[in-house]
């Protein structure tokens, strides 16, 4: 029986028995470039104290344990090794355990990921551990509250670059094997196992330096380095990345009044990464998708800067001070999400950070918070599988949104002062919610217990509506109504909202400008806004103006009419973003037909100056067309949006981000409509020239995918394109296009590759699933039963990362309502309900994914009823 899944109760018992002091870890990856070598030697020496006579266990997911020594005595491996755990009995007050074994290379992005660059055949390694995959690389006590100092040693090919959390202290070429060198790294400060890291391979490396004079007159010196694969060096904009890094270090060191604590600051951009980035102290890892080898929009560059600032904030929130257990994951992720946006706003040249946060990040939170599996920001995390699932829109974006509300509630200075207290009081330690509230309450002079319960310990999203009485000229009264049912308890949880209400009217030139603003606290189910009584009725009354609070907003009838007729004349970018979100929420909630949202996009998106907002609303429009618009209307609505996209591709400013956005939308929509197939083929062949449009690798693959999905590109053509693009992204583009072809045999092969072939890497697997899912109506109907039949075996046999991608991606979600059918009677929903009812004992994390996919489908079917 697998014992991968550490329970919170087990972790608490272990931390009550032991305290960890230090790790000395040696890894031998000199043979990593040989694909026939599945693993590498890992040796872990751990010093720890314990209650005398007690017993505990180490965690190690391995390919074989060679030896275990406890306090100098060799233990019988067969007796003490049980699956992924190593039993340690009869402990002394002070102990040393040494475990030597074989750790396995990964293709899933978990543990030590091994990647062979298709461009040049070079082998690259990196590690990724959150929440608990350090145990795939070395034996350890895998839980965040057992912090220790770490010293790493790595044996690797002499021509490679090798890095870890600590600075390189020595490098020695082996006299017995000159092709191999040993790297020794400086001992770290105390940290958790999940943020240790190793990077090894023929990476390109650039260096720089940052320094700061501290208040005591000493100088803080921080070496900087950047890494990427050698084949991507030409696209690696190191000067800009170093500039952003230095700006961030300046900003956060001043803001937190606590010097950067981790010595050096390396940043590595690595292939097939499961996350956007990971906050390993001294060596942050990022997805290499942030190395833009094809044309990228300004919004993509800003998103990269946001991630860079997010990870840097983690050096304090999460690394210096770490949550005790994953229940308080928000203590690091919510803060880093908030601070990442704040860093972009204050330490870079972009002035739309909070606009993009409101339009994109908060939309992610709103979506997650309406699922039946939503949870409080401070969550109940009974085990590691649950922890893996909670890296979601609640923990990140809702938490950050609530922190923005807290700043409005207590004031920015009190918030920062409380954060500084928190760092000083708990440096290199572990905390819970109570520790943070103590620091923030002391700084603000407010008892935040009630606030914390209402915002952090309840679930669900508030919907706030302004009800206006009176005629068309004067508002006799304005009442804010709050509906906020906690989906877990079923109770109304009326949270306190610090809100601004904006009043907008047209000026003489037709612009829609803010003419007044009222700030108020919305409490309970109803709040009368006395300051607005007797005021002239504005063309637009915008609740939650400036986006201070976390709530969905319903526009009153008059305001909605203004927005649907004149959104392009609304001058303020934040106000426009909030109105776009209100229109989208209305469509998703089946309050208004989804086709109306698409119409608004066609009418007003051409005038949207914010490229981040434009990309988001175009993505929403595609979702609306393919999932929320009723089947009988879909071809017409899609055709109209296609025509708009094609026209604006040709008429947008040549070379602009807007032109690229419309090109991407045209390609996406064309996967299910052949109207532009010849036009797209013409762009690929060079027969059609769109002035200013850069037809680079990413765009070319998008166009090929559209052709393939329409049956207008055969495999030899796709193979020929791949021969010209021997890159990792090219392989992914090819895999998606190949699986998108509308042929039953192709779909069967893609299904088999995803479900039964264990050799696909994480990214090729996802591309194959994405291509499989692009299909004409009816072609995938035969895969519903195989899906439900394979769920438990997939979950049991694959890693949680890979299993999650399969279970989520292959759910039969591309469904429509038959005439006269109600959503609850849809065959896929009924089959899902049957599986959930008959598999109540299935792992909680697996059930959660299935429940969420069911909810997404039900919402889409409900939206179709509004059309």
Give the SSE layout.
Layout: H1 8-17, E1 18-28, E2 39-50, E3 56-59, E4 65-70, E5 73-75, H2 77-80, E6 81-82, E7 85-88, E8 94-106, E9 111-116, E10 123-128, E11 149-157, E12 161-164, E13 168-173, E14 180-185, E15 198-201, E16 204-213, E17 219-228, H3 238-256, E18 265-270, E19 277-278, E20 283-287, H4 298-314, E21 321-323, H5 330-347, H6 353-369, H7 384-389, H8 394-410, H9 412-426, E22 429-431, H10 433-444, H11 449-456, E23 463-469, E24 477-483, E25 497-506, E26 512-522, E27 526-528, E28 540-543, E29 552-554, H12 557-566, H13 573-588, H14 594-604, H15 611-628, H16 631-651, H17 657-669, H18 677-685, H19 697-709, H20 715-724, H21 728-740, H22 744-755, H23 762-773, H24 784-797, H25 800-809, H26 827-838, H27 844-865
Parallel strand pairs: 1-11, 8-9, 17-18, 18-20, 21-22, 23-29
Antiparallel strand pairs: 1-2, 2-8, 3-7, 4-5, 4-8, 6-7, 9-10, 10-15, 11-14, 12-15, 13-14, 16-17, 19-20, 23-24, 24-27, 25-26, 25-28
Describe the fold and architecture.
It is a single chain. The chain is an alpha+beta fold. 41% of the residues lie in helices and 21% in strands. It contains 27 helices and 29 strands. The strands form 6 sheets. Strands 1, 2, 4, 5, 8, 9, 10, 11, 12, 13, 14 and 15 form a 12-stranded mixed β-sheet that branches. Strands 16-17-18-20-19 form a 5-stranded mixed β-sheet, with helices on one face. A 4-stranded mixed β-sheet has the order 27-24-23-29. Helix 3 (238-256) links the parallel strand 17 and strand 18 (265-270). Helix 6 (353-369) packs parallel to helix 13 (573-588), helix 15 (611-628) runs antiparallel to helix 16 and helix 20 packs antiparallel against helix 21.
